[in-house]
Amino acid sequence: MPAAGCLHVVAAAVTAADGRVLIAQRPPGKHLAGGWEFPGGKLEAGESRTDGLARELREELGIVIREPRPLMRIRHGYPYGDVLIDMWVVTRYGGEPQGLDGQALRWLTQDELETAELLPADRPLVRALRLPERLVDTRGDGYEVVDLPATSAAYRAAVLENPIRGDKLRGFRCRDADEAAIAVGKGADFLVLIPEATREAESTREALERLCASVSIPVFARGMSLEAAWAAGATGVNTSDQ
Hints:
By secondary structure, the protein is of the alpha/beta class. Helix content is 25%, strand content 29%. The chain is built from seven helices and 15 strands. The protein has a six-stranded parallel beta sheet. It has a four-stranded mixed beta sheet with strand order 4-1-7-6, covered by helices on one side. Helix 4 (152-160) links the parallel strand 11 (143-147) and strand 12 (169-174). The longest helix has 14 residues, at 201-214.
């Protein structure tokens, strides 16, 4: 849950079959009018995140969503206050998106999203969209997963002196919230919570839920199903052998 006074927003990357993602322009009369953002809106009191997301996209775009998956949560401070964005990915939906609030809509490729004039709170979400829901290898087309170095010297050798190429995202394996905090401080693009973190399935789920709620980068789980990981708020699962 967001801190008191923090506006909780649910938003989605509505994705077409060809991979393009929908963004919407805030209409005149609204705060930050003219800015581009991922569609969504304020979560109402007592409303679940998925119910709120479904309502917002139905009211704003006229679509009925099915099986959204969580991507990440991110906090951003505006002059008027803090915002917690609860970001989801929607690939299955009924209807054709329309700007029912009078807002302009654009379908952009991943590369076009990188240069789009998105609102400051939405910009960090773009790179995370390149991550798949299943990390099947330690190195993929757009990412790599590494162990969290135990010392500063090891970190310099393993990370600073071994930069990843291009636009790849680097994820760190971590065992608990303390290691996760270190990884975030070292510039991790995402985290992988490894099974050694806990001994029992129930405590693993609880640890994952706490971690997903406490960091503003994607989190992947090991040792559980994709559906269970999504239910805990994770972006996906890591199924590689390492």
